[in-house]
Amino acid sequence: MTYRIDDQSSTLVLETTDSLPRVVYFGPRLDALDDLVAAARLDLNGGMLDSLAPLTLCPLGDGHFMGQPGFAGSVLPRWTASVEVRGQTLAISATDAAQGLRYAAELTLNGVLTAWARVESDQPIRVDWLSAPVLPVAPGQDEILELSGRWVGELHLDRQRFSPGARLREARQGRSGQENPPFALTCTPGATWTRGEVTAFAYGWPGGHRMIAEELPCGRRQMQFGHVTGSYGIGTRFETAILTVARSDEGLNGVAVQMQSHARSLAPFVRPSRPVHYNCWEAVYFDHDLGVLSDMAERAARIGAERFVLDDGWFKGRKNDKSSLGDWEVDRVKWPEGLKPLIDKVHACGMTFGLWVEPEMVNPDSDLYRAHPDWALGRPDQVMGRYQMVLNMGLAPVQDYLFDKIDRVLAENDIDYLKWDHNRLLPVLDAGQGHGVMALMARLRAAHPGVEIESCASGGGRIDYGILTQTCRVWLSDCIDAVERVRMQATASLFLPGALVGSHVGAFHAHTTGRNLPMHLRAWVAAMRHMGFESDLTAFAPEDEALLTEVTAWYKANRDWMHAGETRQLDCEAGRTAEIQIAADGSRFVAFAIQTEMPKEQLPLALRLTGLDPKARYRITRRPAPTPNASRGPVALRDQSLTLSGQALMAQGLNLPLSWPATIQIVEGTRL
Description:
The protein is built from 13 helices and 34 strands. It is α+β, with helices and mostly antiparallel strands. Strand 30 and strand 31 form a beta hairpin.
């Protein structure tokens, strides 16, 4: 039997088999199926078994299916399945009565496809691997795009062709990971931001994942996502996180805008007017002084900050990163009257107050570890990471202790924001860590519903659709060098809307790259996402402070429509990165073009826009740049406004003035 679900643009077709069902089709919306299933049948080759094993939602390693199985453990199920259609959801139930096993899965198609799976057993069993419902790779999508990175070097996009065999990526560090983030895309060869067929995958789990992209000997291809191998252990209930999938025939941007909208719906109470942050980390590090920080608060407010975030160093005994994690009480040496004097100063400056925490960690040099060494995850003689260990978040007493400590800090102080960090890789793999941190965040949010939480993990080490259900912002990287951030922000737009991505103005001399960058670039790159400052404001020259104040005012005037709209990247020549942000109602847009390197060509190529109404007419203006550039020709947009149709802007584009590396040009458009 066949079953189908549809949304406005896509159709998914499921066919039953002797085991679990299989996905026959996931692609553009179909009116009638006709003989679709019959047309999908494959022949046999002489060197094969006498029947071709179906690529089911959870293929089994039973000697019939020759690829990577979707389930591995101490049992080998034989499923008898049924399918129920519930609106736009397909609900699958299966049993193995002889072994007391049950399988359940749901696939829902509503803007994006979401899918999860669960296995239950009457008796304890060991499960090493369970995939979320498995999808075949769409015909013609011969390339795979993956994300990789490292600390201060996150979100590189890597492209390769499928080839025979299985490609495995695992985040075995106990978090979503900078090295192997839980995202991937398949696409037709040479797909760009604006052209090609693309399917995007996002696995929503903060505790480490596994991805398998396999080309079978018969030519079929499959994508599997699940918890990292070995994190389940022995039990009676095993459930995957939600796998989110989007597809488009309009290039990478086509899936990006779907994923951005879905991610925005996951995050709790994302306010359109995202407040401008000031974070004191790169200004003072651990050296906290009320006078210095009060002066910094005045300077930040004068520029336009609306939230002041006190970073690491505020709690008992914390002088550096070698001690005190776990002792979540205000340091009375640094803060003899508590945090209230600073909070009062911040409020007097018209800002709200935020605080850095790292609840899942403990230093061996701490009162907590001395009292409860048994609460640490892993062996006592394990290799340290940043002088710290990980608390076992699967233990109820650990969660209770952390809730009580942080709840008290929030109850005794007027705090509306937590920067929640995670700076240590896990010594062992345990799904309990992911469940534990999600439960703790949910409990704190219930007790303090006005408090927002940011996900930070050595920068971008914990960004996924699971943690987004509890957080309102992610920190892409500890690197706030604007040139690096341009690349990172472009890649992140595949899965994240600007409203959820923190982006800060750093120092002229970047602390993590040593690169010197002008304020014009630093300020505007931060204004492209959720804007903030993170540097010693006393080091800003008066003209830089004035420029940052101007850009901050622009951000405030435009953030509501920018953060509710969509972000699309533009296809550009090497050395230039550009994007367009379009209001949800299409009434306006802003395009940013950043010259990151010396151009190969003598003159820049036309900047072709995308996502506009081809029949609409737009008034186009370019914001003047205070920094000199290489231009000396008669480029019309430099000195005057233009009126062009959406079709002209997308087909012919705009010729911008020639510019030096590390400069940015801003073009604004209003629909007439």
